[in-house]
Design goal:
By secondary structure, the protein is mainly α. It is about 45% helix and about 10% strand. It has helices at about 5-15, 20-30, 45-55, 70-75; strands at about 35, 40. The longest helix has 11 residues, at about 45-55. It is elongated and about 60 Å long.
């Protein structure tokens, strides 16, 4: 089994965000995690799952460039 990731290490992986922010995100987004007593840790697989869940895929804009949503609705 690989080493478990600490909140401090997780904060570093997310480009130096605060540990408190990582813990807030853990609660807010219901991230998978391991509890060791009262401490929260993550496996590499859980980290990969968290990144996959939080990855945003851009959607293709509707309408023409510079066209507002309202004018796009009227045109369709």
């Amino acid at each position: 089994m690989s080493e478990l990731i600490t909140p401090e290490q997780m904060a570093e992986r997310f480009q130096g965000v605060e540990v408190s922010t990582v813990m807030d995100w853990n609660r807010k987004y219901d991230w998978p995690h391991v509890r060791v007593g009262q401490q929260v840790r993550w496996t590499e697989e859980q980290y990969d799952e968290i990144v996959r869940r939080q990855t945003v895929t851009p959607t293709r804009p509707k309408g023409l460039p510079g066209q507002t949503q309202r004018s796009a609705r009227r045109a369709s």
